[in-house]
Amino acid sequence: MLQKFGSCINRHKLNSHSGTVMEVIDEIRAPRKPEGKYKAMAICFILGLGSLVSWNSMLTIGDYYYKLFPKYHPARVLTLVYEPFAIGTMIILAYYESRINTRMRNLTGFILFFVSTFFVLVLDLATSGKGGVGPYIGICFLAACFGIADAQVEGGMVGDLYLMCPEFIQSYLAGLAASGALISVLRMLTKVAFEKSHDGLRKGAILFLAISTFIEFVCIFLYAICFAKLPIVKYYRSKAALEGSKTVSADLAAAGIQTKTNDQGGYHEQQERLSNKQLFNENLDYAVDIFLIYVATLSIFPGFLYENTGTHQLGTWYPVVLIAMYNVMDLMARYIPLVQWLKLESRKGLLTATLARFLLVPAFYFTAKYGDQGWMILLTSFLGLTNGYLTVCVLTVAPRGYKGPEQNALGNLLVLCLLSGIFTGAVLDWLWIIGKGTF
Question: Which of UniProt's keywords are assigned here (predicted)?
Answer without folding.
Answer: Membrane, Transmembrane, Transmembrane helix, Transport
